[in-house]
Amino acid sequence: MTWIHLLFWLFFTLVGNAASAGDSIHTNGLDQEIAVSSGAASSTLINACWTADELRGRPDERKIRSHLPVDHNPPEQLAPSAPAQPLGPDLARSIRSVKPANDAKLVALTFDLCEQSNDITGYDGALVDLLRTEQVPATFYAGGRWMRSHPERTMQLMADPLFELGNHAWTHGNLRVLRGQDITDQIQWTQAQYEILRNQLLSRSCAAALPEAARSIPRLPATFRFPYGTCDASALAQVAAAGLYPIQWDVVTGDPAKGQSAQQIVRAVLNQVRPGSIVVAHANGRGWHTAEAMQTLVPALRKRGYRFVTVSDLLQAGAPVAVEACYEMRPGDNLKYDRLFGRGTE
Questions:
Q1: Is residue 195 part of a domain?
Q2: pLDDT digits (tens, 9 = 90+) for 251-270
Q3: Hey, which end of the chain has fewer CB within 10 Å, N or C?
Q4: Domain range holding 276?
Q5: Which intervals hold domain NodB homology (predicted)?
Q6: In the prediction, which pLDDT does 10 show?
Q7: Residue 68 placed within a domain
Q8: DSSP track, 6-68
């Protein structure tokens, strides 16, 4: 253990032993990927590589389209070029929130970009445009196949200093049902696709002209979100072995429900949010009324004194509150997804 790792160990050990939603654990050595994942890249990079019109969302992008034949093709490379540094076994747990030091009113907005092997799920440009206009940091959990089918949008999110990308598995596989190599592929193929697009971005002349800003883009995602919010001990262990922090949530927007209004989303979040909360929503065609809800939520949360941060910054601000299982709001409440979706990949 390096002296830096030791300092993190001492800090998180002293922060506290438990919180209402689970145990506070120490993240034994937050690596450099987390340390630079938010706010490090210069905003000049994104402005140099894309015009305002190219960054702006288009209404037709959000539409979900079927993809036939089903796409079972792997990425051009099957794993990232550098081996991951595995996390300790104490980190093979589902992080639901963070207990911030001094009860700081921090909240992490997270948006899933999931995609299976038989569809193309789109991009909610209105939502991303709003976050940029309001200067709201956010974390996007992108599936590997989503990144491959939306390469330009992926690179824009990657280059934006407001945002960070996390791993959301290759084709939204249910890691509580999948086993062994299938889980490895869901994780590593996504890491590899991120690296492919990062290298593609760095090869562009706009990035070559800004080497310091380009280098500050994280080499790989540092956090992972389980598709369907499902996991077991084996899946948690494989995610930690891949060097990724397993991130769940403690605030549910419910935006996949078509019948839920923006105002219902606003009420749900405001009723659930606490200092250190992680909010789950969607930034593709799977979310309904998400952008409209955020138009109200962002100023409402700021009025309550909350400051928006990425998941990586939230992890550095206190002790993660983690549990040994994955669930939506109560243990066992997502077991139905195993029956409904099985492997979950299409």
A1: yes
A2: 999 999 999 999 999 999 99
A3: N
A4: 3-58+86-341
A5: 105-309
A6: 34
A7: no
A8: HHHHHHHHHH-SEETTEEE---S---HHHHTTTT-S-HHHHHHHS-HHHHS--GGGG--EE-S
